[in-house]
């Protein structure tokens, strides 16, 4: 079964891992500008990965459910995800004083795996 909960969990794990990988690459690149920039990129990307993990936990923590409940989980999970991202960006830039450009670059780097279509179909041959 292609759309099983187990497949969704595997996909969510891969997406979060890919987001963290891209975040580490961006942070390493920004370390050239200095430690605050590297930490900014790291915090921006890690915030996105945390938000994605919160969404995944909301969607896949329990077993099968009727479509209406799953849709509600999806909506609430996305609201939680973007709430976590907004709070993380606020804390990184306003409270910690990390460079905004580096933080936003970390966010963009972490979102790249989703934009490139990291999904089950690309992992199969044929």
Describe the structure.
- Helices cover 77% and strands 0% of the residues.
- It is mainly alpha-helical.
- The protein has one domain.
- It starts with a helix and ends in an 11-residue tail after the last helix.
Secondary structure layout:
Blueprint: H1 5-30, H2 35-60, H3 67-95, H4 100-115
Helix pairs in contact: 1-2, 1-4, 2-3, 2-4
- Silhouette: elongated
Helix content: over 70%
Main structural class: mainly alpha
Strand content: under 5%
Distance between the termini: 17 Å
Mean pLDDT: 90
Distinct helical segment count: 4
Low-pLDDT residue intervals, each spanning 5 or more residues: none
**What's the story with the biggest beta sheet?**
none
Q: Please give the domain count.
A: 1
Write a short abstract of this structure.
This protein has 126 residues and is mainly α. It has helices at 5-30, 35-60, 67-95, 100-115.
What structural keywords apply?
4 helices; mainly alpha; about 130 residues
